[in-house]
Design brief:
67% of the residues lie in helices and 0% in strands. The chain has helices at residues 3-17, 19-30, 40-50, 63-78, 83-86.
């Protein structure tokens, strides 16, 4: 597959994990006459309820990489990003 043909896969993977991304980027685009508008509290509720927690299967854990990942997530949260915007 060419790279432009696989771009949709990135969105599909994110949709599977992130209900807010689905609502804002797909549902509301397909149904502009019936848009879903949620507050940040409602978004967090739906994100927590419907997100997919994916635990990767690893042969070895790279603790340095895990630490860097967690630091990056914490930095984004300090900048004001919400969970559904990060993941």
């Amino acid at each position: 597959m060419e790279s432009n043909k696989t771009d949709w896969i990135k969105d599909y993977e994110r949709i599977k994990r992130n209900p807010i991304f689905f609502i804002e980027e797909y549902y509301n685009q397909l149904h502009p006459d019936n848009e879903i508008c949620l507050t940040d509290v409602e978004k967090q509720h739906f994100y927590n309820k419907y997100r997919v927690n994916m635990i990767p299967m690893l042969d070895e854990i790279d603790f340095k990489a895990v630490g860097e990942y967690e630091k990056r997530i914490e930095d984004l949260r300090k900048q004001g990003y919400k969970n559904w915007e990060i993941f």
